[in-house]
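Open question from group meeting: does this chain pack into something compact, or does most of it stay loose? Before anyone orders reagents, we agreed to write out a predicted structure and look at it together. Recording both the input and the output here so the notebook holds the full record.
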Amino acid sequence: MKKLRNNIWFWLGLILISVAIAGGIIFYLTKHFGRVKAPTSTTTSTPTSDEKITTPDVADMRQEVPVPILMYHHIRVYNDSNDSIGTGLSVPPNQFQEEMNYLRDNNFTTINFFDFVNFPASNLPDKPVIVTFDDGYQDAFDNAMPILKMNNQNGVFYIISGFLGRPDFKKNCPMNY
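C-alpha cells returned:
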C-alpha cells in the first residue's frame, strides 16, 4: 500500500511539474511571439519650430500585415500517370503566366523575405505577395524567370545543396533575384 501511495505521489508530482513547465513555455511564447499590436504615435514639438513631429513608439513598431506566399515546385508541362506526386507538383508555364498576370493586373507586388522580415523599417506595398520555388529545379528557373522578368516581379528560389550536380537542378541560378 505504501509503495502504491509513493507511486501516486511520484506521478502526481511529475504531472504538476510538466503542467508548470508547459504553462511557462506557453506564457513565454505568447508574450514574445503572440499577436503584436499596431504602433501608437507620440506627437512632440521641436524647440526651434512650431512644426509637429509624429514618431512611432519605440517599444513596439510592428503591426500585423497579411502576406500570402505562393509556393511552386515545377513549372513544366508534365502528366505522368505513374508519377502522381510529380504531376501534382507541376504547373504548366501558361498557367503560371496567367497566375503572375493576375497578380500584376490586380496590383499585387512581389516581395522577398528580406523585405518582409525588415518591415516596418522597409515599407511594404499595399498588396504584397511572396512567390517561392522549392528545390531549385531547372524547369522552374527556366520557365518562371522569363515570366517574372516580363512582369517586373521577383521570386525566391530555395536551393537544396544536396541536389547540386543533378541534371534537373539549376547550376547557375542567380542567388539574389
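Observations to bring back to the group:
The longest strand covers residues 128-133.
The chain has three domains: 1-34, 37-63, 69-163.
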